[in-house]
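Issue: ligand-bound run for zinc ion - logging full I/O for the record.

Environment: standard queue, default settings, no custom constraints.

Inputs:
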Amino acid sequence: MKKVKFINHYRWRAYPPSLNADLPAHTVDCPECGQRISLPRLKRGQEAHCPRCGHEIVDVGKNPYIAPLAYATASLILMVFVYSMTFVTVTLAGITSILSLPSMMKQLIVSDFGFLAEVMFVLTFGSPLVFLLFCLYVYLALLFDKVFPGLSYATRTLVRLRHFIMVDVFFISTLVAYIKLSSVAEVSLGAAFYLMLALALMLIRTSVSISEHWVYYKINQILGRNAIEAPSEERVCCSRCLYFREKTEATCGVCGADLYHRRPKSLSMSTAFLVAAVLLYIPANLLPIMISSNPTVVQANTIFNGIVYMWEEGDKLIAAIIFSASILVPGAKIVLLIVLNLSAHYGLPANSKTMLKIYHFTDSVGKWSMIDIFVIIILMSSFHSYMARVVPGQAAVYFCLVVILTMLSAYFFDPRLLWDKSRYSKTITDRPSENVSDTQYTYD
Ligand SMILES: [Zn+2]
Ligand SMILES: [Zn+2]
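Outputs:
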């Protein structure tokens, strides 16, 4: 068993006993590489990382009770303004459209593109809203030391929703659409656009301020239970909350997630989603993704045609952004997921740490593929008159599905399988001197 390397960047101060943030010393299995780690007692401002793969196990923030509440409240207030104020004003051929985010979604619904409206609604409004409300719910319970119903469920949901918040992607998409629009129409960005940048940054702050391992410990403390159990042959470390539970439990008694040593059917589920993504990637690229029309001409563009057209028209920057988001990122993600799945089956082409970096890369870049879809949604809302009209082609739906399926494929892939497969893993585990810092700092 290894001692953990931990970083101390905050001096201990006297806080009221009710706001004690200490996490007692205990043992966890790293959810990324499976390494068993013995964590020392952690206080405010201390974080612990896995000595083998570097994964952050827990970060008891400087203000673990107040910071998430403050960030979530600020985000909710920003959301009210972002969703009620003018987002963008477009004037073309004497017709002015004043667009807010709800009016853009309405436009999609009345034009019979309900699926895209749902995608936009879920990723830019529904997920962040539910995430923030659950965040307030959980942290108010922790702050006031009160038992609220469904605290574990709320924590589990908000942790999962973090992957489905795409306000930042929508913001960048608006910039791309703005450059594209301003060559043909008069465009002015509204207050909601600028506030959206603040909202995107605040949502990221809220998201990183939540340390679920610590939160689950505190929830169980409020419920009068101790989440910490010693590891043994009969116990398994929950992959979500990282506390040891009896193997006989179907769902984890601490967080309520399914209890397993390695995600069951990880490779077959991941491969199935990947195959579906590869199949849909074909119509997504061959069918038109955007159809634009004016009284004299109707033009249907596939993803690639559209990029070539923009490049030739001189919009090289937008062409490069759309190429990266729509072809490079999903293509690379599919190839890397195939490499990861094959590696977990047949052995690794590189060491486990490099493979884990690839896994994190595929997991983090995926959402940026949505840029093209959001650009089309913005263009469509701006050009919906007889003089100029933009509608999404069939490929838009397939493309959305490719993005969602690759996200699911990465989600179901259990990164510990890479370490299990690695022929180096045994040697590294047996060499405790490597990668491990025994330096410990205590502030009492
Ligand atoms: Zn690890
Ligand atoms: Zn659990």
